[in-house]
Amino acid sequence: MNLWYDFLTNEQRSIHKWTHYFPIYERHFDRFRNTDVIFMEIGCGEGGSLQMWKRYLGPYARIIGIDINPECVAFADDQIQIRIGHQADRSFLAEMLSEFGSPDVVLDDGGHNMADITGTFECLYPAVSRNGLYLVEDLHAAYWDEYGGGLHRQGSFLEFAKQLIDELNADHTRGAVQPTEFTRSTHSMHFYDSVAVFEKGRHLPKHDLKTGQSRPG
Ligand SMILES: C[S@@+](CC[C@H](N)C(=O)[O-])C[C@H]1O[C@@H](n2cnc3c(N)ncnc32)[C@H](O)[C@@H]1O
User: Fold this and answer.
1) Annotated catalytic residue 112
2) How confident is the model at residue 216 (pLDDT cuts 50, 70, 90)?
3) Beta pairing, strands 133-136 & 195-200
């Protein structure tokens, strides 16, 4: 199934996505298809994206929709569970984790407020499964005042993420940055227009290696 085609031909519940996100989704979500993935989307909107993930991810996927709007309970369906709460409420998120276990994928498409995005990330990212991923979308809001954003503004999620680049590389900073659980559990960070993706994966011991001959004879 082609996610872009599915989106374009959707005649059921409304889905609201920027078009350039689709290649990003396909690139990062493909490996979870037809697995028993626990996929958590923050921000249910009108319910169509939950159905789209269900169609895309296949019959073993478990989709958890989180929203602050109680009307979203109407989007519950086979394979889709809805829980109502504020995305940055730590005790609510702790309940989600104890009920559903470690999510394999978290997609933050909620309120887009910088403090909330960061708070949600700090709470949920450590709980994402060992090879899972965390995607934040609509990060154009990171440049917009009304969402707590602004270029180089402290508290913007992108400024927070820039610090995480140093944390990812902490082992090479000669002690300037102490390795953290983020260092140890993160494989890679990807930045796109309005989207950030954090992929988990354990690091093996690191070393460099030179192969071949300096003067091949
Ligand atoms: C952009 S819509 C989601 C669109 C949907 N994912 C889609 O692709 O069609 C944002 C949703 O986030 C919800 N929301 C806003 N603030 C929130 C918060 N603090 N916690 C949880 N959900 C929130 C809104 O009620 C709304 O349903």
Assistant:
1) yes
2) confident
3) antiparallel
> Residue 114: what are its φ and ψ, rounded to 5°?
-60, -45
The one catalytic residue in 28, 112, 140, 152 is 112
Question: CA 165, CA 185: separation in Å to the nearest integer?
Answer: 13
111 Cβ inside 6 Å of ligand 1: yes
Report how far ligand 1's centroid is from the alpha carbon of 95 (Å): 19
State the average pLDDT for the chain.
Answer: 97
Q: What is the mean pLDDT of residues 144-151?
A: 98
User: Using only C-alpha atoms, what is the Rg of the chain?
Assistant: 19
108 lines ligand 1 (CB under 6 A): no
Domains of the chain and any CATH numbers: 20-199 (3.40.50.150)
pTM: 0.96
Atom of ligand 1 nearest to the CA of 47: 9
Sign of CA dihedral 89, 92, 95, 101: negative
pLDDT at 217 over 90: no
Which tokens go with 108?
């933050």
Taking the centre of ligand 1 as the mean of its atom positions, its distance from the CA of residue 154, in whole angstroms, is: 24
Is 65 near ligand 1, meaning CB less than 6 Å away? no
What separation in Å is there between the alpha carbon of 10 and the centre of ligand 1? 19
The candidate with the shortest Cα–Cα distance to 47, out of 3, 24, 26, 77, is: 77
